[in-house]
Amino acid sequence: LLDFARQSKPAKALHDINKIIRESMALTRKQAAFKDVAFEAVLSEPLPVMDVDKDQIQQCLINLAINGIEATDPGGKIRFASRLVPEKKVIEITVTDTGRGIPENALGRIFDPFFTSKEGGTGLGLAITHGIIEQHEGSIDVESKEGEGTTFRIHLPIHKGEQDA
Asked: Given this model, what pLDDT does residue 96 score?
């Protein structure tokens, strides 16, 4: 709750997005294994380094991973992917699960503070994630089909100078 209220300004430095993704996967892998959910990474190499707050981007990816783990039945899978989208001058990160999906009537509200469909949930995880991505001048969107899974797509802009780094 304090993180949400504070919305601290990103402490940016140059980082390898794929390294942040791999570290986020490592931090949530035990929780996934405990639930018998497999992780997969499809990371484009090489990507330009990016001027981001590593801890904040990692917090976003961990939030998305935990949500995916909780929504996915044993034997399911979560895939992390990255790629350069040169025409849009962004790096795209996707987190896809094979979980139960998000009901269509909830899709428009999932980034709203305090909106939750989880018993005992606070409704702050996705709101915080959305705020962090916006503070990085990026965007996050979601595609979901009930019974088929969910994909969160993050676009982070590549600024002049990062392309050559």
From this structure: 98
